[in-house]
Amino acid sequence: SSATTPIRATLFPGDGIGPEIAASVKQVFRTADVPIEWEEHYVGDEIDPRTQSFLTWESLESVRRNGVGLKGPMATPIGKGHRSLNLTLRKELNLYANVRPCYSLPGYKTRYDNVNLITIRENTEGEYSGLEHQVVRGVVESLKIITRQASLRVAEYAFHYAKTHGRERVSAIHKANIMQKTDGLFLKCCREVAKKYPEIKYEEVVIDNCCMMLVKNPALFDVLVMPNLYGDIISDLCAGLIGGLGLTPSCNIGEGGIALAEAVHGSAPDIAGKNMANPTALLLSAVTMLRHLELQDKADRIQDAILNTIAEGKYRTADLGGSSSTTEFTDAICDHL
Ligand code: NAD
């Protein structure tokens, strides 16, 4: 692999535990000989007028140029006159789909050991369009926006994902019996795209029934695609099925095929700087980035090394009931590699 030209990828180590778990990713990638060259960008300490946020214009340009990146957690600075970092990234890079693989980690016991599903959340509209106002005193209104363009785009991504990742079925999650126009349009778009993928089974499941089925038997699902609000809730529900936010990776897909992977958790200020953080979520996010780049061999090797280390149980961080530091756990993964 040393003969291949390195692929440049943007790395935002982020705040709090971010730099510690980003160091873990860099070490594991080096050990596995992954042909990635990181372009590191930190969040600035003042507002960049060009982005109206603490994210620099250069860092956004870096993601646009490279098309791939990995993002650590970013603390939301308290104060006025700037946009939230995550919102800025989502808007500026047009990150329209949030993809979360959720599978049981062998050796880490939870209520279920057969979870293997993917949630794909529309990330730009729905109830999160930010269109809320007061009609008269005591009456407020929030607009839920669903467009054909965004629905087709996320549905297309879901079916393409299913096809390229050996998945058999896509379930569209909705409440079209009540939200007839909005969710109705979302479903219509999913059906249209489904016709182009006859080899992938397609079904529609009402959100309330979906929740019941997920907690009763998560193995009933394969790939789930849904509008923004449902995706926000269901994806956390699914994270809970496999052991929590410390283990769950995600990847944001943007315009022009941009992939920005990120852990689901925050900057964990309570344990920052103590070499205690669990790097698993960020490492598995980095694995989703490798899969996006179709570096399947590297992705498999790293994922196996992480899962084997956790399953072996000798080195685990405190959140998983162990007493290993971030660096000891990372070294153990590298030994498995
Ligand atoms: P958090 O996820 O940072 O922490 C919640 C709890 O989980 C803490 O006890 C923490 O120690 C623990 N935890 C989280 N990740 C862990 C890991 N990898 N290993 C071990 N333990 C871990 O949530 P919070 O405290 O609500 O938020 C802290 C900051 O992070 C806030 O500024 C918030 O805005 C930000 N945040 C950012 C993102 C993001 O960048 N995507 C997401 C959520 C929160």
UniProtKB/TrEMBL annotation:
Keywords, ordered alphabetically: Magnesium, Metal-binding, NAD, Oxidoreductase, Transit peptide
Family statement drawn from the similarity comment of this UniProt entry: Belongs to the isocitrate and isopropylmalate dehydrogenases family.
Isopropylmalate dehydrogenase-like domain boundaries: 8-333
Cofactor requirements of the protein: Mn(2+); Mg(2+)
GO-annotated biological processes: isocitrate metabolic process; tricarboxylic acid cycle
Superkingdom in the source lineage: Eukaryota
Alphabetized NCBIfam families for the sequence: mito_nad_idh
Name the UniProt record assigns to this protein: Isocitrate dehydrogenase [NAD] catalytic subunit 5, mitochondrial
Entry-linked Pfam families: Iso_dh
GO molecular function per UniProt: isocitrate dehydrogenase (NAD+) activity; magnesium ion binding; NAD binding
Source organism of this protein record: Cucumis melo (Muskmelon)
Description of how the protein assembles with itself and partners: Heterooligomer of catalytic and regulatory subunits.
Cellular component aspect of the GO annotation: mitochondrion
Keyword Mitochondrion set for record: no
Metal-binding in keyword set: yes
Entry-linked InterPro entries: IsoCit/isopropylmalate_DH_CS, Isocitrate_DH_NAD, IsoPropMal-DH-like_dom
